[in-house]
Prior knowledge:
Layout: H1 22-36, E1 68-69, H2 72-77, H3 84-91, E2 101-103, H4 108-121, E3 124-127, E4 147-150, E5 158-162, E6 167-171, H5 176-183, E7 188-189, H6 202-207, E8 225-232, E9 235-238, H7 251-255, E10 264-271, E11 273-274, E12 278-286, H8 289-301, E13 308-312, H9 314-321, E14 328-336, H10 342-354, E15 365-367, H11 378-388, E16 400-406, H12 411-432, E17 438-447, E18 450-460, H13 466-483, H14 499-505, H15 508-521
Helix pairs in contact: 8-10, 12-13
Amino acid sequence: MSQVQRKRSFWTWGHSSDEPTEAERRKVAESIARRTGVAVEPPPVPDLGDIEIRKPRLKVPEALRGWVSTESEDRLLHTYGGHSLELLAALRGRFDNPPDAVAHPRTEEELERTLEWAAGAGHVVIPYGGGTSVVWGLNVPEDTETAVTVDLDCLNAVLEIDRTSRAARVQAGILGPDLENALRPEGLTLRHFPQSFPWSTVGGWVATRSGGHYATNHTHIDDFVESIRMLTPRGWWESRRLPGSGAGPSPDRLVIGSEGTLGIISECWLRLQKRPTFRASAGILFPDWQTGAEAVRQIVQAKLWPANLRLLDPEEAGRAAGVEGSLALLVTGFESADVPQGSNIRAAVAIARECGGSIEDEAIRIDDGTGKATGRGGAVGAWRNAFIGVNAGATNGLGLLSDTFETAITWDRFAEFDGYVRGRMTDVLNRVLGKGASLSCRFTHVYPDGPAPYYSFAGTARLGGEFEQWQEIKAVANEAVVAAGGTVTHHHAVGRMHRPGYDIQRPDLFAEAYRGAKRAVDPRGVMNPGVLIDP
Length: 535
């Protein structure tokens, strides 16, 4: 269990201790001004106590007041997720639609009493997780009369470790670092590291089908779930803990990715691994994006299963890794708890060189279990620092509009898909943000049958008009990836943001079947309405 209750930041990712300082914000503002030619002063951070919000529209029963709060600060801290525009609204003191109450149940019995009260009264119930959703997955719908947000931050313990089977029973409210700290003395790890890892929870990972940053093999939370315990308005849903089963459709698979629409995940059994001791890494340069993509395809289809196989296009390689010119960069790494990785990385490098990639032998870094650092120097180290050091609040209010969208497509369609998406995005970015806007792409995950391209864009925004400009760009991005045959989201979840694309992507009969499942466990339709389907 986490021994320290860390206060969430309301205007940036993470905790208040993660917030950029005033000096850091000014340094970022100067950097943006040099790039855009527009100087903007960092807006002041408001005091939470000075922000006025509407009064609660419900009354909490006396018996529940020990863990259900209607305090303004608690409601403010649970109004938004982690999307940059939500954080910008918070920085400007705009909290137009907060939840009416926030529950922090300390036991499953308190969780039961909370849901019994809320569902019985017809209050919308929104599971919160770590609050890092970037797809409007935890916001109160605008047409909601009353809403209760449920935060399992007090249900945050590792309850049991099965060392023989390498699995752990974990409460859903535990944060990523606390989970790893509990497993470390046992020499074990979950090995699931989404970019939001420091601030997100196990329950949130399961509910959103989270993807970790390992590029191949076991990377999605689906691969780690052994069984799930979830409370629905109709009662408990708990699957049998098994290594595998062919007994009909999986009850766990229906819960994984359900995004709070069926119930509140209380705990789950997760498959673990030994902590790795053997590592290897390399940064391989390619003359262009297409050549690098072909190398990635051949490496992943060779089933060497590198932990990292991220291809950065020239724009991304220049910005995030300091690569000069028009070269693409492939960041690859291997790790194992039992087997030295020198032969694997040399095999991957050999394939890359055959495809036109270049790397000096001495730039291949191998640790045979001595603790030698890999992935720390050169372009690979620069990329790693940029990836881990992301802070979604540092650029808030400085006139820069930036965002990402991710998808997946099969190899045979990738080149045509990428060209179509880039063409559509370049047009809308030039129209909305001007000719100086940037667009880049990297592979975050790769499979034998296709990559997961992750696009980033940025440009100078009109202060006060950021949301409207973003909305126009995002609508084109959603439409383009779905129209070209990709998925509307690879690992960021659907939420309310991706509903239009998801409605086109998923079969109509599946939506009807899912509504039937929702009616069975949530007859009043109170669980996170507007996400995935309409009740």
